[in-house]
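pinned: reference chain
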Amino acid sequence: MHGLTALERELLSCVERLTEASKESAQELTTYGEETRTELAGLRSSVIALLRSQLSLAAALSAWMPDSAHLNDSMEQAQRAKKHLETR
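pinned: its structure tokens
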């Protein structure tokens, strides 16, 4: 830093602080992205488990009420949602 004016040294100091702040920000964003992916994977697993439970219940109810079109529609929608989640 020899031969630099006071203004140049101050500017260089600002650039160094900005560079460090940028590195820290990038690291925080990377960490946040990893945490978000983990949370989404957990949420996805929970939704799939919930859909399986709903399908089991709907199948049991369907055995008691085989002529229920509304129940059959609900089962089909849950099956489509489960397949969609499992393929992602």
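why pinned: The two ends are 54 Å apart (CA to CA). The chain is about 90% helix and 0% strand.
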